[in-house]
Design a protein that fits this description.
The longest helix is centred in the N-terminal third of the chain and has 28 residues. It is globular and about 65 Å long. It has an eight-stranded antiparallel β-sheet, with helices on both faces. A four-stranded parallel β-sheet has the order 3-2-1-4. A four-stranded antiparallel β-sheet has the order 5-8-6-7, with helices on both faces. The chain is built from 13 helices and 16 strands. The chain is α+β, with helices and mostly antiparallel strands and 427 residues long.
């Protein structure tokens, strides 16, 4: 009898949800969908233009310091600038004010640093999408490691910088070197490599009250890979793996040319990376969106999870993905969100099967001369704002190898500038 009541209650709740969903769809038919795009960095132009092409009313919310950047203004219906950044409670008050006269259907953060802010706004407005708890799995390096480990995903041995007895036990048990990592910075920002316990404690003591915002992790030598994915209704519709020629940590701290190349299906790590990526996405409970995950393949062949972000990969990795597959994650993100909003199936465009490579570096000149980077396989170049980048695409990975080696040497000789690493992200 109790079971029957529970089943009846569940049926009633499902029917109520369906009625509410039906009213939402009827309301949507009378107006354009409204997407609020948040970005504390200048990026995401492709996504903004795709929103326009899809007939979405697009609101850009960014920071005052970026108001003069070359945003695709023709594709933006409304723009608002936060003078003090996305600080609380100001950001919640501002978005709530906009919502008085606008039915905001989706909130999309364009940068890693905006993921948690967007999650908090969704919670406050009761808007669909990733909430606070899930967002931590994609922003907090400690939370994502604990979650991955608990779900059986291999991760390098780590400890929270919290309890001193536990830290000492860890340092005595786990051989160095180790890396000290901020929990909520992006990429390699703020990471310190330590070779002995005294180095570790020296860095910890300098952190003061910020110690608990860090973790210590065993440094695992090996090749570093990234997998870029598109997820809809808990299913991975697209995933492409690539290998960094030099680990991002080494480039960030020592300078040099950053390079990444898609992984040939014949590579021994190819299937293992896709399997590990699927395992991590399931562990992090991502229902819908785009991801950029990083893994390291140790010398014994074990693939360890490093981190995953609920956003498009930076450093023009979206263009690398597009050069190899014809799929641009920025473009697909609003397409899948709109499909969910309209209660439709998401359909991925036809996938090409090329190999591609990317080289990028800081430049000594504001507009470096890349005219000599003119192989037929070059599909994209960037030469502005003291940056230089080239993307090549070919049917065979061996040809991509040749071009990346050649262009890395040329950039190092003719273009490269080296700047000291910063402790925070630079706008």
């Amino acid at each position: 009898m109790e079971q029957n009541r529970a089943q009846q209650g569940e049926s009633t709740m499902c029917a109520k949800r369906n009625r509410n969903r039906g009213r939402e769809l009827l309301s949507l038919m009378d107006r354009k969908p409204i997407f609020l795009l948040m970005s504390s960095f200048f990026k995401g132009g492709t996504l903004i233009e795709e929103c326009k092409a899809l007939g979405i009313h697009t609101i850009l919310l960014t920071v005052e310091s970026l108001k003069d950047k070359a945003w695709p203004w023709h594709a933006i219906d409304e723009k608002f600038f936060m003078p003090l950044g996305f600080e609380q409670p100001g950001i919640t008050h501002a978005v709530s004010f906009l919502a008085r006269t606008r039915e905001i259907d989706r909130i999309i953060p364009l940068d890693d640093f905006d993921v948690e802010v967007a999650a908090g706004l969704r919670e406050h407005l009761r808007s669909p999408g990733m909430g606070d708890t899930t967002a931590r799995f994609f922003r907090d390096k400690l939370a994502m490691r604990v979650q991955a480990r608990d779900e059986g995903v291999p991760v390098p041995d780590f400890v929270h910088v919290l309890n001193y007895d536990q830290i000492n036990e860890y340092l005595n048990r786990v051989p160095g070197p180790w890396v000290l990592k901020p929990r909520s910075q992006a990429g390699s920002i703020g990471i310190k490599k330590c070779h002995n316990s005294q180095e570790v404690w020296d860095h910890i003591n300098k952190l003061g009250d910020e110690q608990s915002e860090h973790l210590i992790e065993k440094y695992v030598p090996g090749d570093v890979f990234h997998v870029d994915s598109i997820v809809f209704d808990n299913k991975i519709h697209f995933a492409l793996s690539s290998r960094y020629h030099t680990p991002p940590f080494d480039v960030w701290n020592g300078g040099g040319v950053f390079a990444s190349q898609t992984v040939d299906p014949k590579h021994p790590a190819y299937q293992g990376l896709l399997d590990a990526n699927e395992q991590v996405i399931k562990a992090m409970r991502l229902v819908r969106g785009v991801t950029h995950a990083e893994f390291i393949r140790a010398e014994d062949g074990t693939i360890y999870f490093l981190e995953m972000a609920a956003r498009v990969g930076g450093a023009h990795i979206d263009r690398l993905v597009e050069a190899a597959s014809g799929i641009n994650p920025w473009r697909e993100w609003p397409r899948l969100e709109l499909a969910y909003l309209k209660k439709e199936k998401y359909k991925l465009p036809k996938i090409k099967k090329n190999q591609a490579g990317l080289v990028i570096c800081l430049s000594r000149n504001e507009h470096p001369d890349l005219s000599s980077y003119n192989a037929p396989e070059v599909v994209w170049k960037l030469a502005e704002e003291f940056h230089a980048a080239v993307i090549v695409s070919a049917a065979k990975s061996s040809r991509v190898d040749e071009l990346l080696d050649e262009y890395t040497r040329k950039l190092s000789k003719d273009v490269l500038a080296v700047a000291p690493p910063t402790e925070t992200a630079v706008h």
